[in-house]
Amino acid sequence: MAVQAQYPSNVFRLNSGKNRQQQGYDYSSEPHTGLDQSHMLFNNGGTSSLKRGREESAPNIVNPLFSLQSQSHPSQLIDLTQLLNHQQNAVSTGLGLSFGDQQHQQQHRSPSPFLSLFSESLSSQIKQQRDEIDQFLRAQGEQLSQALAEKRQRHYRELLNAADESVARRLREKEAEVEKAKRKNAELEEHAAQLSMEAQVWQAKVKAQESTAASLQAQLQHAIMMSHEKRALSCFVGQAEDAESAYVDPDRVTLSGPKCRGCGSRVASVVVLPCRHLCVCVECDRHFRACPVCFTVKNSSIEVCLS
After folding, report:
1. In whole angstroms, what is the distance from residue 282 CA to residue 257 CA?
2. Does the structure show a pLDDT above 70 at 240?
3. What CA–CA distance (Å, rounded) separates 178 from 117?
4. Strand partners, 302
5. Conformation bin of residue 276: beta by default, left when phi > 0, alpha when psi is -120 to 50
6. Cα separation, 177 vs 171, whole angstroms
7. 33 CB contacts (<8 Å, ≥6 apart)?
8. What is the pTM of this model?
9. Structural domain tally of the chain?
10. Is there a contact between 255 and 243 (Cβ–Cβ < 8 Å)?
11. For a FRET experiment, which of 69, 133, 141, 180 has its CA 20 to 30 Å from that of 82?
């Protein structure tokens, strides 16, 4: 971008040393090698309006002597505000103002090296700042990406931990259920073993009862045989008595077995257990709680049929 150098209206171009002494000004206290950049570039105050007023009022006449002196001596730039501060009573001529206008137009036509340097410095600073901004944005983007990645990894780890805890909790629950089932199975097995033992006991009791029944059957058979023998004997005796006497007692009862130990009038037809005595009839068995022969406590009884 092309920058056109412009000097503000509060700057004069004057000759050095000798010309100043001829004009009656003393600029010994002013700098001769540089410019006041603050007034040259940024001062747009009342001095510029004062100069324009003087330029409008002064005649446009060029002094040949002043022009020759300006060609023989190198010109320098001073600030108008400094000139007004040092010489409040100095009056500028129209020749000087016309020469200043000419120099001002030349400054408008040719760019200043200082402004070129300033523009280059400004563009370099802008480029540097743009690079710094880009670098800062890249760094911030990298930090943001890293933070998002860390947050994502943290979220994944939390999800994995939650899943592990859930699986571990379910495994513990299943293990507790398995342990409970094992305990229940052990209890059932123990109960089954107990029932098996009880069944064996009952089987032993049944076998004992079968042996007892067999023994009672044998006793009954023996008793039946004995009764038959007694009946035969009684028949033989009865015939002898009939022969001796023809009288028959109507209340006489002929017994065909052992006599009941309870009533004494009926035949004993019930075996008392566990002593196995055939000693009572059916009617007396209902009233006896013990055997009338050995006085053993009765736990059961069996009725037998004697023929």
Report:
1. 14
2. no
3. 90
4. 271
5. left
6. 10
7. none
8. 0.30
9. 2
10. no
11. 69
